[in-house]
Amino acid sequence: MRLNVNGNSLEIDADPDMPLLWALRDIAGIMGPKFGCGIAACGACTVHIDGVPVRSCSLPVGAVEGEITTIEGLSKGGELHPVQQAWLEEQVAQCGYCQAGQIMTAVALLDEIAEPTDEDIDNAMGGNLCRCGTYPRIRAAVKRAAALKTAEL
Amino acid sequence: MASIGKIARRTFLLGAAAVAGGVAVGYWYVSRPYENPLEGEVAKGEATFNPYVKIASDDTITVIAPRAEMGQGVATTLAAFVAEELDVTLDRIKVEHGPASYAYYNAEMLAESGPFNFFDDSFLAEMTRSALGTVGKVLGLQGTGGSTSARDGFEKMRQAGAATRAVLMQAAAARLSLPVAELATENGRIVHARSGRSVSYGEVALDAASIAPPKSVTLRDKKDWKLLGKTQQRVDMHDKVTGAPIFGIDVRLPDMLYATVLISPVFGAKPVKADTSKAEKMSGVIKIVPLETVYGSGFGVIAKNTWAAFKGAEALDVEWGKPVNPADTDGLMQVIADAATKGEGDVMRNDGDVETAFADAPQAQLIEAEYRVPYLSHAPMEPMNCTAQLKDGHLTVWAPNQMPTLIRWLCADLAGVPLEQTTVHTTYMGGAFGRRGEIDYALYATLIAKEADGHPVKVTWTREEDMQHDCYRSAFIARMRARLGDDGLPQALDLRVAGQSMMASLVGRIFPGRSAPGPDNTTTDGSHNQPYTIPNYRVTGIKAPLTLPVSFWRSVGNSQNGFFHESAMDEIAHAGKTDPIELRRKLMREFPAAVAVVDKVAAMSNWGEKLPEGKAKGFAFVLSFGSWCAQVVQIAQTPGGIKLEKMWIAVDVGTALDPGIIEQQMVSGAIFGLSAAMNQKITFADGRVEQSNFHDFDAMRIFQAPQFEVAILENYHRMGGVGEVGTPPAAPALANAVFALTGKRVRSLPLSDEVVFA
Ligand code: FES
Ligand code: FES
User: Fold this and answer.
1) Do B72 and A26 touch (CB under 8 A)?
2) Fold classification of A82-152 (topology level)
3) pTM for the structure as a whole
4) Which domain of life is it from (chain A) (predicted)?
């Protein structure tokens, strides 16, 4: 089957029942989306399909239609995406394992709400677990990213 | 599994080698007991100066961080030690994890495990501290834990930087034919101010490597620090915001196979009957491998990809043996309760005469209570995994781990290859919290690699396997009685803490057949060594006779004792009609560092202000890992349940090496403690863990996280740790706040068994 990932069309030889996460990681070698729970409970595996954040651990690869974006596809031309830039400036990550998922969710949030409140952030990001407890900095980084994005326009 | 004799002999040989090697000329620390493991590993045009620094002709400076990065920012701080003395900015430095080598032993990790309280500065305590450090050297124990990494590296790595700078200066002097005294360093160059001539570090690196380093170096005074003491950009941040494949689970090698494990869910049991035929026939499954180690027995499933391995493991039909411990939580807790009530224990603190103090106590002045905490899983975000390859008599292991030398010993033994033919690579870790100080994942991967015809195999556990095969934080029960004086202050406090011994469990796994002699500090750590002065004060630790696998969980003994001791203090304060903070000021007056953090957090949180109806604050203090930490949490009753609004933290770390990382670790530690206090418990039925994933063992979510304000103090004269210090006071601060809000004293965790959180 063919998958459209980060602007590339890839031929994937996989059981259609295989979750997208494992097709990306084990077969396509795209390691950004992480395995955390396998049951859509932690958000570590979050990718976008046509801009919508989905839990790739719980989506059979055979059911995927549309353009997939992973964290690897966020930065354009060597420039970090404003959300990544904000994450860097706020020094959000600790172990970093959940952060690809956090960033993908935050990107989708900001595409929908340009200037989210704390409550918007808490609502949108509640499905992304962070065992290192980076939440206060995530809130700050989402707001900084919102400002960076507005400044870019 | 390694036989005891073999391990003991190796340990002994190491000791001998350490002594024999000790006479070698020393420069990077007093003596040089181990070979520099980087010699023989350097690339062409690259020079190594000591086990911590490599400089290449193209000016690439590499610092080896011998402690593992699990999120606590240690890679950044360790690199800053070298950079400070080498006189370069941090962005000039590349950081690598060290190979598993005895040269990177961690002295601090053992120093804190002695029987003396941290604040006891007596000669004897100092002696013990350094003697145990020597044991670290002898065992060559390279480990990350006990919030020790920065403290251990503080001297060694700054000396490494200074010694390297010294030989670079000498080489430059020779190259430029100028006296050393006229040269200075400036961000990676050696310059002669008068003539304007200069060379870069890289240009003279190879010359410098052949110069004998100075016998002693003078380190920069704290007031001259350019990097240390200031917040640095974390060296790993760019990789972590771009999704770089840096974790163990991201290892990808040519011809690699994938695997998973299915280990007996009944602890200590073996498979009684197994039908593997269905699994063997599954598409993508290559081979089923029986596994047996001291950690557990079961099967490995080798497959073409991880998903196929998971499906194969699901298809295994296995009947497991009977549990050797009581099969359910009630039965387990009964054993611990019996130990708490009548078990014989080790008295870890005994001031005054507790028995006499209670003998004539009038009933009205007595308080008695029982506290309980459950078993807990570590549940780091990255599930256990490990990649191993056994090819041409060489074993290579890639593991996100906290104990590389131990993995090297035991996996070599298991694979039947000599130690010299065994390489361990430490990857970045997606969290650890103590879990990756165990080595089960590496043992299983080694056994699986033996059956993989020379292919590398990446073994990934499902979350369910991870949660149901942890080495847990033991459940504990504490029985407390206190006698109040007429002034409301405690005249006597007697605390009996019972639970499984972590040290006994650990020793049993690493040295099968041996038992850990003597008292286990970790049972009462956080209760027996707190800076309170009470005339009659006794703390007893009792080992409960159970053999479930238990181990170090972020902040170790302090994780349960913080809750016991500080809940007790809060009860004493209320019973004696003393404000909880006022009580601490009085009882800790002999320790100004403690009183200072208490005062600070009281001021920050405006303690004592009148709060609107439906809001309340709780306070707790714990001295752990050499740092003094006071916390206040404010909570509010909302229609959806209790909401955590804000937490204030004041911590004295002695010397603050990187305030940004310290702030982050305090918040991280507190959230870790709050997560457990609010919701987490591991329970047992039929000898198995009942929880399996984040739906029934969840942690705090962003919408539950309070706001934080952290103050860092530097009053105490010795440096403390930071990675675990925020955890111990979090649970009691919250429980004490719940009491203030609701009048309900919750003495058993998690709190959600009794109250509802929003
Ligand atoms: S791995 Fe997909 S949500 Fe946890
Ligand atoms: S940064 Fe470690 S889990 Fe989020």
Assistant:
1) no
2) DNA polymerase; domain 1 (1.10.150)
3) 0.89
4) Bacteria
